[in-house]
Design a protein that fits this description.
By secondary structure, this protein is an alpha/beta fold. It has eleven helices and eight strands. Strands 1-5-4-2-3 form a five-stranded parallel beta sheet. Strands 7-6-8 form a three-stranded parallel beta sheet. Strand 6, helix 8 and strand 7 form a beta-alpha-beta unit. Helix 5 crosses helix 10. The longest helix has 19 residues. The N and C termini lie far apart (58 Å).
Length: 294
């Protein structure tokens, strides 16, 4: 009788393990990353706000794109912390000028590595807009697939976007200092290995936050040709090896949270639902007299 009772439990356990061991065939939040063919189909059939986030666009834009150089436009020149994100009201003003409405669908692209695109993606998330995606491979991926380009940015009427700050995707230096000894929180350093070890000095202090793990932001991209994101399982393997697992809260950062924003997007793409970028990043932490460095 006991064997009969244990049999269903054994079956459930075996099936559960088999499901957990299945390799990822797609990104858990695949809607956040579009291929060029998917974007082309959207452009043909939907109303979408398409944003070119590159610093300069020269004469190669995807048809219908507006230009918003995200890294420079999102930097607060009056904040003492280098490249700190602009405030909510100014962000709202800038987004309305792009034509952003609260109910829009947004697709962002850049030169290809998604660094500028991810910076805007994070800012939109933080200020309460959750319907944005990134074009995988950016303009390089678009051109590689043979799609048309134009030489003049589009212009849209002013939008009605209203900010709604999402504090769940933000943390400050006090939070980081307390989190560094918490085993349920992973401090994810997306800088280069030389910055992490202190060989590359960019602040008063060099090194890393205690107990942080290091994976350079670009290691989730293909290194040759168009810098597409690696397949989902390859990214997950890199994360798992470092203990960056979905059951933990993750705090990505870099020197100015531009690369940290790329790590934020990748974590979101991979289905992580508790991610709090440290906006001040090393530009703040490495220049704070009270910070502890390893």
């Amino acid at each position: 009788m006991r064997k009969l009772l244990l049999l269903p439990l054994l079956i459930i356990f075996t099936v559960s393990c088999a499901v957990e061991d299945q390799p990822l065939t797609d990104y858990p939040n695949s809607h956040l990353l579009l291929s060029a063919s998917e974007l082309n189909n959207i452009i043909q059939n939907e109303d979408v706000l398409l944003i070119d986030a590159r610093s300069e666009v020269s004469d190669s834009l995807i048809p219908g794109s507006i230009h918003f150089p995200s890294i420079s436009e999102l930097t607060d020149p009056d904040n003492p912390v280098e490249s700190f994100l602009i405030g909510a009201e100014l962000f709202q003003e800038k987004m309305r000028a792009t034509g952003l409405n609260n109910n829009d669908r947004v697709v962002i692209y850049d030169e290809g590595n998604s660094l500028a695109a991810a910076r805007l993606f994070y800012a939109l998330d933080y200020y309460g807009f959750s319907n944005a995606s990134i074009l995988n491979g950016g303009i390089q991926g678009w051109l590689a697939d043979g799609y048309d380009i134009i030489d003049t940015p589009a212009v849209r009427d002013e939008g009605n976007f209203s900010f709604n700050v999402n504090e769940a995707v933000f943390c400050d230096i006090t939070y980081v200092m307390e989190a560094s000894n918490n085993p349920d929180i992973i401090i994810f350093d997306a800088r280069s290995e030389d910055e992490f070890t202190g060989k590359d000095e960019r602040a008063e202090k060099s090194g890393h936050i205690p107990n942080a793990v290091n994976l350079e932001w670009s290691n989730v991209l293909q290194q040759e040709g168009v810098p597409y994101f690696l397949p989902a399982q390859e990214i997950q393997d890199k994360y798992t090896e470092l203990g960056i697992t979905p059951d933990k809260e993750v705090i990505p950062h870099c020197h100015t949270n531009v690369r940290g924003s790329h790590a934020y997007f990748t974590l979101r793409l991979m289905g992580y639902d508790s991610v709090r970028p440290y906006e001040g990043s090393w530009a703040e932490y490495g220049n704070n007299p009270d910070s502890v460095v390893q």
